[in-house]
Amino acid sequence: MDNPVAHTPPPIREGVSTSGSERNWPYNSWWVAAHHSEVGDKPTQRWILEMPMAIFRTASGKVVALHNRCPHRWAPLHLGEVIGERLACPYHGMEFAPSGQCTKVPTQDSVPPAMKVRAFPAVERYGFIWVWTGDEQLADPALIPDDLAYLDNADWPTVWGYKAVEANYMQLKENVLDLTHFAFLHKHSLGVTDWDRPPAVEVANGRVTYRHDFVDMPLQPVYAVPAGTAVGKRVNRASWGTQLTPGAHHGGVDVHDPQPAPGELARFSNRIIHLTTPVSIGRTHYYWAMARDHGAPFDVEKHRAMADIVFGEDIEMVTASQEMARCSIDHNPTEVSVLADQAAIQGRRLVAALVEAERAAARGERSVG
């Protein structure tokens, strides 16, 4: 496939999207708040989009996300106790239903109608807890991308992990939309050094996807060893990635060996999932997962150790870049882009359009674009 942006002049883009003081996330979106294994009958606090949440399971197993501030004396509800289907405040014992409405005030028979907290729609899917932070009437679980359904497929062994990142969530998203950094940032850890030209980029249906086809190229150990294929064997490899939503991205490596040796696979695939949820302008919850359709059983600890190295390199760089942005915020910084940035540019534009649409709606205006 020809690269549709090969002759596009590199634009100059302002850095405000990742380094400014205004929010750059939409509220009307599903965001990952936790891995399912982290949520039980002991409430957990999560800051999501600068909002504190108390996340827990009721006795029936229902996942609930409530605003973490009791309306009585502002005690943090996550320090309280789950009693059946309700969460009791640790300070004066007020009990709150999954709807956020207080159902019991221990010192009186009646409950003031105003004694309630915001309840955030919460869905458990693909091994993660997703919360909706915008207009509750728009909280359609079908908007959680079903592209990630392989995470529930027993034929795709998976491993997951979490990192707290001191950088804007779009810094991480744009990092995974441009993998030309592999040959430099990850040259020792991954050894994938053949990404030397911009990928093809497509924008459709609110998503941006890049794809790079490597034809008749030596297969690196990171892909060959788990598949039982000879390292360095010349095969066809397709690497791609898609920004699914403001908070979800996945990518893959699909390998085709035209001449597999006895016992080797003719085709095999890897998947990598990046789930980035803003804590604030300069902090992010970063959940990741890896999956593949071969090489079971999955050595979980080995892959987590590898991820610590590779993603650690990414995080160190985006954190350092964020610090440079902070240092320059009053000096009208700009970012000069190259052709390989096209997917990241388009991803940023898609998210920015969602943010502007919400702001226009709040002003009673109709957004343009």
Briefly summarize what is shown:
The chain is α+β, with helices and mostly antiparallel strands and 369 residues long. It has 6 helices and 20 strands.
Can you walk through the features of this model?
The protein folds into two domains: 12-18 and 146-362, Naphthalene 1,2-dioxygenase Alpha Subunit, Chain A, domain 1 (Alpha-Beta Complex), CATH 3.90.380.10; 37-133, Rieske Iron-sulfur Protein, CATH 2.102.10.10. The strands form five sheets. The protein has a seven-stranded antiparallel sheet with strand order 13-19-18-17-16-15-14. The chain has helices spanning 16-19, 169-176, 182-185, 221-227, 300-328, 342-362, and strands spanning 12-14, 30-35, 44-48, 51-57, 63-67, 81-83, 86-88, 95-96, 102-104, 119-120, 122-125, 128-132, 158-165, 200-204, 207-218, 234-245, 248-256, 267-280, 283-292, 334-336. Strand 11 and strand 12 (128-132) form a beta hairpin. 20% of the residues lie in helices and 33% in strands. By secondary structure, it is α+β, with helices and mostly antiparallel strands. The model is unreliable at 1-17 (pLDDT under 50).
Secondary structure: elements and pairs:
Layout: E1 12-14, H1 16-19, E2 30-35, E3 44-48, E4 51-57, E5 63-67, E6 81-83, E7 86-88, E8 95-96, E9 102-104, E10 119-120, E11 122-125, E12 128-132, E13 158-165, H2 169-176, H3 182-185, E14 200-204, E15 207-218, H4 221-227, E16 234-245, E17 248-256, E18 267-280, E19 283-292, H5 300-328, E20 334-336, H6 342-362
Antiparallel strand pairs: 1-20, 2-12, 3-4, 4-5, 5-10, 6-7, 7-8, 8-9, 11-12, 13-19, 14-15, 15-16, 16-17, 17-18, 18-19
Helix pairs in contact: 2-6
